[in-house]
Amino acid sequence: MTQDPGQPEPDTATGGEPAGIRVGPVTEWLAEHVGTTAPLRFERLAGGHSNLTYRIDDAEGRRVVLRRPPEGELLPTAHDMGREHRLIEALGPTDVPVPEALATCTDAAVIGAPFYVMAHVDGVVLHTAADAEAAFDEPERARIGRDFIDVLARLHAVDPDAVGLGDLSRKEDYIARQLKTWWRQYEASRTASDPLLGQVNEWLQGNIPEQGPARVVHGDYRLGNTISSPDARIAAVLDWEIATLGDPLADLGYVLATWPRPGDEHVATTSATSMAAGFPERAELLATYESATGADLSSIDYYVAWANWKTACIVQGVYRRYLDGQLSTEGVDVEGFRRTVEAATELAATAIRRIDPTF
After folding, report:
1. For position 72, what pLDDT does the model report?
2. Which residues contact 270 (CB under 8 A, 6 or more apart)?
3. Are residues 68 and 144 in the same domain?
4. What is the DSSP track for 321-358?
5. Which H/E stretch holds residue 228?
6. Cα Rg for the chain, rounded, in angstroms?
7. pTM over 0.85
């Protein structure tokens, strides 16, 4: 089965233009820098984290994808399109599957913000269990799950210095920096006392594993940020906007923490892609990564606890914005965010207890 990466969303247009696109200037720019042929057809794609993603078809049947920041005022360091482009361009020659980086534009006058363009990749993005069940049978889902981990192992085998990414960010103390950042954000959005999350935070602060060689950490590695090909392989990894250098086991811990399976006691969402039958169990994912990398995974439960703790901190911020009226609550189960915070906290504590039964 072949499907575009992300479901098209209805365009919000002004004067016939998709929101976030200035058709005339970008058509000229794409012709010069990418070689597309007018007229162009633009279609906004769902997903893509917080950045806006558009599929563009030209008059000769060529298809490319454009990524730009969301509209409105942004923090100076947020939504760095040049950084995303740099990452996929650097990883292009490696065995990590990424879309081909075609061009980047720093001139905000073209569409109102910097942007970059990459090649279109055929396949399907598996955002939910229903997506996976509609696109692939159970043996194919098993193959996708194994390849998903193999791709992560290949990413973590890349030496950032060797591909020109050695100065992407600080390399040391990744977990310590993450703990400081996200706890500060959690405390700014706290709505009630949560002693257990505080205890989790203190334990994580006091038991940080020693970090090995820094690698590219994707930061949001999940099936919803990849394209699965018709032959049930990972065709491309997407959404590199929060990628950095640091501890590669943070990515693996995040995968395990966001890979619920039927029968789990605490599940943040039953629609998670991995809830579909056929996908590997977490133990198999762990064994696949260990076999591919030879990494010492004796401390992996720390990273699972950390990933769940981080999820609780992030979702608490979203919950607070709904309570404060910063986000529309129409059709939204606002209390579901609170329940997710509670479930993620309990999952973090459970992972810690596997290391420290006295916790």
Report:
1. 52
2. 129, 260
3. no
4. HHHTTSS--TT--HHHHHHHHHHHHHHHHHHHHHH-TT
5. strand 226-228
6. 21
7. yes
**Structural domain for 31, as ranges:** 13-119
Q: What is the mean pLDDT of residues 233-241?
A: 95
Whether 158 and 106 share a structural domain:
no
pLDDT at 215 over 50: yes
Q: Domains in the chain: how many in total? A: 2
Structural element, H or E, at residue 119: strand 115-119
Say if residues 238 and 227 touch (Cβ distance below 8 Å): yes
Beta bridge partners, 216, equal: 245
> What's at 49, amino acid-wise?
H
Neighbours of 97 (CB within 10 A): 20
Asked if 89 and 118 count as a contact pair (C-beta separation under 8 A), the reply is no
Name the maximum alpha-carbon separation found in the chain: 66
Distance, in Å, from the CA atom of 111 to the CA atom of 259, rounded to the nearest integer, reads: 38
Question: What are 65's strand-pairing partners?
Answer: 55, 118
| Judgement on whether residues 164 and 36 belong to the same structural domain of the protein | no
Pairing state between β 63-68 and 115-119: antiparallel
Residue 129, number of CB atoms within 10 A of its CB: 21
**Residue pLDDT, tens place only, 189-211:** 999 889 999 999 999 999 999 99
Q: CA 271 to CA 223: how far, in whole Å?
A: 13
Q: Which two tokens stand for residue 77?
A: 């360091």
